[in-house]
Structures are given as structure tokens and as C-alpha cells.
Design brief:
The protein is α+β, with helices and mostly antiparallel strands and 284 residues long. It has six helices and 17 strands. The structure holds 2-oxoglutaric acid.
């Protein structure tokens, strides 16, 4: 039977203060190990204090795609890319996930919305035969920019490539999605299931998807977070922030959903990365 560990108030306060100061969970676990805590016990303690499911803190494995490429996972407290500074405010090992504050500036968010608005259409999903279809699970409207379409798009693509260590041409075109109250994207994986009939077609160019970056272009008045039900985590949608998650090898803990917007609206920009260069404008 699992017995709950007694956590001293001092240790609890130290864990909270250390993570609030911007240190990631791996740093906290390492410091605890250096101070004589058993790693397994440390994970239980940290999970309990931070109210995270224990599965989220399991040691990460080095997941490498058959093509040998993997994304570089941004490390806290902050990363500077070409003079642009962003903060890594949450780090989860399973799935590999980071919350990145300040990935886009206010102006970039405003400009992306203005550019996308006249081009919105009902968002599609990819069915099991690899065809694009209207799907009740995804009720938002969206559009795609082509790779390098505008200086603003190139700048963001270069920033993501620099941040994650994946060449720009492995990225699908940036997708913008717009949700109104009640609209959502039900739980799904972004990687393609090799068991499905359409797998060959959707991976013929670029291969499998290996990671996603969902960037929030505004802050919905209520609702609209991104939920990761397998680990009990919901990332709050906040303008200029992003959630990055990698799923090399088809990680089932990367199941995620765009929660219904309850009040206001929600705009996001999503970048999907492939294991090889992706040269078509057909998008999922
Ligand atoms: O709207 C969100 O928060 C998530 C979007 C998403 O899951 C996707 O575009 O694949």
C-alpha cells in the first residue's frame, strides 16, 4: 500500500519558493538528491507539493525518432534567441512539456490576428485515410500561413527553430485558430497513428510529427486553456505565452484538448514540427 510521505513545512515552502523563482522541477529534484533525498521519494514529495500527477515527474527517457532527430527542450529559467528573451515557467518530463512566457510580443500577437482574420475558414482534421474533413471534435475556424510567407512569419519561425534546434523547413506552415464561446478541440494526439490506413499518406512528406508549439495570441476572458488529461494539467491561455510539447515515438501522455471558451474568444498560433523537411502546404 502506498503510504503518504510527511513533508515538513520548511521543505514544502522551499519547493514552492524554488519553482516560483523560475527553477524547473529537474533542478529541484537534483538539489534534493544532493541533499540526500531518495529520488523516488523526492518525486512523490514534489508532485504532492506542486499538485502534479506523479506520472508528470518520471525521469525523462531520451526519445529519438528513427530519423535521429529530436527537439531541444528549452531549460529554465529563460532562453535568449536573437535578442528575444523568453521565460521557461513550467517544465514537465512526461510528456516533455514546457510553458514558455513571452514567446511572442504583444505586437506580434496583434499582427498575427489581424493578418489571419480575413482568411479564416472552418478548421479541419485529418481522417483515418489521410483526408482533410470537417469534424465535430474541432469547432473552431482557422487558416495557415505558408512557410516564410511574410517577414513576421519568418521571424517567428526562425525563433522557434533556434529555440528547439529543429531546422525551419521541418515545420508545417503556422496555423492560426479562432475559437468563440462554446468552441473547443476535443482530446486528440498531434502525431499520426501508424496503425491508421492514411498514415503513409500523411507522413510521405516530412515523416512523423515530433513536437507542437501552441502559442496564445490573446487571453480569453474565461476558459480556453489547453488540457493534458493524462497528467491532469491545464495550461492557461495567456497572450504571448506558449505550451511546447514533444512526443517523439508517439507519446500517449501528449493527449491534449483545447478546452471550451466560456467567455470572450481565443486565438492561437500552432506550429507542428516534423522529423524531416516538410515541403508541402497541405496541412492537418
Ligand atoms: O486550442 C488549444 O489549446 C489546443 C489546440 C490543439 O490542440 C491543436 O491545434 O492541435
Amino acid at each position: 500500500m502506498h503510504s503518504r510521505t510527511t513533508i515538513s513545512p520548511e521543505l514544502r515552502e522551499w519547493i514552492l519558493a524554488t519553482t516560483r523563482a523560475g527553477h524547473g522541477i529537474p533542478d529541484v529534484l537534483k538539489l534534493m538528491k544532493d541533499n540526500g533525498y531518495d529520488p523516488r521519494q523526492s518525486r512523490s514529495i514534489v508532485a504532492e507539493v506542486l499538485k502534479l500527477p506523479l506520472a508528470a515527474l518520471h525521469a525523462s527517457t531520451d526519445k529519438t525518432t528513427p530519423a535521429g532527430l529530436r527537439t531541444r527542450h528549452p531549460e529554465p529559467p529563460s532562453v535568449t534567441i536573437d535578442g528575444h528573451v523568453l521565460d521557461v515557467t513550467l517544465i514537465v518530463d512526461t510528456p516533455t512539456l514546457r510553458v514558455l512566457d513571452g514567446i511572442l510580443t504583444e505586437q506580434e500577437c496583434t499582427d498575427l490576428i489581424a493578418l489571419a482574420r480575413p482568411r479564416l475558414q472552418r478548421a479541419l482534421t485529418v481522417d483515418t485515410d489521410g483526408k482533410h474533413q470537417v469534424d465535430q471534435r474541432r469547432t473552431s475556424e482557422g487558416m495557415f500561413f505558408t512557410l516564410n510567407e511574410l517577414p513576421l512569419i519568418s521571424r517567428i519561425e526562425q525563433r522557434l527553430a533556434g529555440l528547439l534546434g529543429v531546422p525551419m523547413n521541418h515545420g508545417e506552415g503556422l496555423q492560426i485558430l479562432h475559437y468563440l464561446p462554446g468552441q473547443e478541440y476535443e482530446p486528440h494526439y498531434d502525431w499520426f497513428d501508424p496503425e491508421q490506413a492514411g498514415y503513409g499518406a500523411v507522413t510521405a512528406i516530412g515523416g512523423q510529427r515530433i513536437a507542437s508549439v501552441v502559442m496564445y495570441l490573446n487571453t480569453p476572458e474565461q476558459g480556453g486553456g489547453t488540457a493534458f488529461p493524462e497528467i491532469g494539467l491545464t495550461v492557461t491561455a495567456r497572450r504571448g505565452t506558449a505550451v511546447y510539447f514533444a512526443y517523439e515515438g508517439g507519446d500517449r501522455s501528449s493527449l491534449h484538448a483545447g478546452l471550451p471558451v466560456l467567455r470572450g474568444e481565443k486565438w492561437i498560433a500552432t506550429k507542428w514540427l516534423r522529423e524531416r523537411p516538410f515541403r508541402t502546404q497541405r496541412q492537418a
